[in-house]
From TrEMBL:
Family per record: Belongs to the binding-protein-dependent transport system permease family.
Top-level taxon of the source organism: Bacteria
One matching Pfam family: BPD_transp_1
Protein species of origin: Streptomyces endophyticus
CDD domains the UniProt entry points to: TM_PBP2
Identification of the protein by name: Carbohydrate ABC transporter permease
Amino acid sequence: MSSDTATLVRTAPAAAGPSRRRPLGPRAGLVALAIALAAVSIFPVLWMITASVKTRATVTDGKLIPTDLTWDNFAYVFTEVPFARWLFNSFITAAVITVVALLFHSMAAYALARLKFPGRDGIFVVIFSTLLITAPVILIPLFIVVRTLGMLDSYAALIVPPLFNAFGIFLLRQFYLGIPKELEEAAIVDGCGYWRVYWNVILPLSRPILSALSVFFFLANWNAFAWPLVATNSEALTVTQVGIASFSTQYGANWNYVLAAAVVAVVPMLALFLVFQRQMVESIKTSGLK
């Protein structure tokens, strides 16, 4: 091999290498934008956590890193106010609503997606149109209905009205439309009725979307404030968000206590999201939403 050929062979990869590289400008811009958005989103949470371990005198000093740490705020929250009872009420309410709503929503979505009956599409349009109505619009009519049924100031008032949510039915219906019909037909050939098809075929295939919806439903009802405030009066039925709001009226504007209670209330939500974040992403990818 001549020296010119060897030189060409050695320099060819180096000449071809830069042409294969992707431009760094757009990627660097996207990375910088993502970092900036993450910082904006995380900063309030970090400030809340650090302020929850400050004293009342330094809670509004504007410093992110506290100079004098104290855990008395958390001790006050659990000893001086019935915060554990508030957490229990929120957990029971959110858990029962999540389980019951997923059962009814999955059955309704299965009927609207896989069964054929007169008026099916019209029923779905009516259910879907309720997403256009905001909760404050129906707050007073819902209160009148619950009062007429004698459910005010009870767990039934906290659980029954939030059970019905068109978003869950819509998302499950979109997911069920993507399930191959051959699976359902094979089960019917084997002698399964509609109920067994739903229970033994559809539900096992719905685990990703049900996991995602369980997170959505639980977080929405854990953070509920307006309806529990209207539907309950007794201290024994106070939920976490209503109890935290009462700090400013019943226990004075002690922001160190409010922020400590908020940190405790945020922990279950963060844990739930971290556990089910993969299922949430997979459900959105497979449900037909873009």
